[in-house]
Amino acid sequence: MKSNFKIAVVGLGYVGLPLAVEFGKKYSVIGFDKNPNRIKELLNGFDQTNELTKKELERVKDNLHYTSDESNLSKCNIFIVTVPTPVDANNKPDCSFIENASSLVGNYLKQGDIVIFESTVYPGATREICIPILERVSNLSFNKDFFVGYSPERINPGDKARSLTEITKVVSGSNEESTTVINNLYASIINAGTHIVSSIEVAEAAKVIENTQRDLNIALVNELSLIFNKIGIDTKEVIDAAGTKWNFAKFYPGFVGGHCIGVDPYYLTYKAQSIGYDPQVILSGRNLNDSMPKIISKKLQEELQDSNSAEVLILGYTFKEDCPDIRNTKIKDLAYEIVKFSRVTIYDPYVDHAMVSIDKANIEFVNNLKSEKKYDVAIIAVGHKQFIDMGPNLIKQSIKNDGKLWDLKSIFKISDSDFRL
């Protein structure tokens, strides 16, 4: 098995690019992405995800070669797959990206090569889906001619404190020798260390429950917020009070979007159902979190008393604060619900409105707040630092005299808002 690493990272998104750059500090790396525009931007030192600066990209330019020409993969002996694994319209796993990536890599597999998957999947997917494709396309035998590993990604978009190298890496391989090689490879760049597990399936399961647990915790506090609002007490104050006990885990209500938390539980429940178990708790939490845009819009409609002429300002569009990531954002769902009874304007300093696919009439996406326009309700939907810095008084300048400020993220004091979760 080869130890002179020549690495290919397949997929240069939020996961693949930081990984390629870190490996590029020590090894020869091919960064492959099928999107030529993405490659062109990276060659010019621009990362649209804002995860890496031009200086960080330039630092590894001698070792990291960006390309959309798949023939460059022939030079590599380690292939790391970091493509998306979304769900379809019916919340079923869409494995087409990882299937295509497996087929692509299979074309260039050689004796002794290792393929490592980082994309989130259900337990068993690597062995059931990816390995058969690799064998068929390459005409090589698994665990004889080539080897496979799984090391789940743990990238947290926009989080500069917990970067790739500062998060413990779970690693697994298809046999003892490949596990050792894979572990040594990641250990060479991960400051936080690695954690070896006994099988690929354990590593797959560990990843998928990380986000399932978080999804359920958020679902719990979302339900608690609905209860506490009916009682007439403030949810944040309740959670902060409960949080004074050492073993209380603090989670706050809100929308659950993004590439992981709102998606991964469906991979686990799909697998559970395929083996004859019908999950109750996981899907219940998922359904509640998915329903939050409708719940908020219904309450707003009651507040506006069915006024079709109302103007609503939504502050924030990304799926989380202080990053440009709009994948699976629930703010889009919120806008689509509110526009059924009001006109909607959306402002997010991290998002270029030209990049957003909003196709409903009476929804306007703006690049700045026009002081001359006044709204009936302003909704803080994402807790961007810019909104915190603006403060409630400046935001209220965009609201009519009898208008309301809804602080769904509780970024201001309760006295400064008319409603919050």
Give the topology, please:
Blueprint (H helix, E strand, L loop, with lengths): L5 E5 L5 H9 L3 E5 L3 H8 L10 H5 L5 E4 L10 E4 L14 H11 L7 E4 L7 H14 L8 E4 L18 E5 L2 H12 L6 E3 L3 H32 L3 H8 L21 H11 L6 H24 L6 E5 L14 H9 L4 E5 L15 E4 L8 E6 L4 H12 L2 E9 L14
Parallel strand pairs: 1-2, 1-4, 2-3, 4-5, 5-6, 7-8, 9-10, 9-12, 10-11, 12-13
Antiparallel strand pairs: 6-7
Structure notes:
With 421 residues, this protein is α/β, with parallel strands linked by helices. The chain is globular and about 70 Å long. It folds into two domains: 6-198, Rossmann fold (3-Layer(aba) Sandwich), CATH 3.40.50; 218-416, Rossmann fold (3-Layer(aba) Sandwich), CATH 3.40.50. The strands form two sheets. An eight-stranded mixed sheet has the order 3-2-1-4-5-6-7-8, with helices on both faces. Strands 11-10-9-12-13 form a five-stranded parallel sheet, sandwiched between helices. The protein has twelve helices and 13 strands. The mean pLDDT is 93.
Taken from the alpha-carbon principal axes, the silhouette is globular
- Major sheet: 8 strands, mixed
Integer count of domains: 2
Strand order within the widest beta sheet = 3-2-1-4-5-6-7-8
Distance between the termini: 55 Å
Identify the CATH architecture of the largest domain.
3-Layer(aba) Sandwich
CATH superfamily of the largest domain: NAD(P)-binding Rossmann-like Domain
Tell me the name of the CATH class of the largest domain: Alpha Beta
Rounded to an integer, what's the Rg over CA atoms? Answer: 23 Å
> Which runs of at least 5 residues are low in confidence (pLDDT < 50)?
none
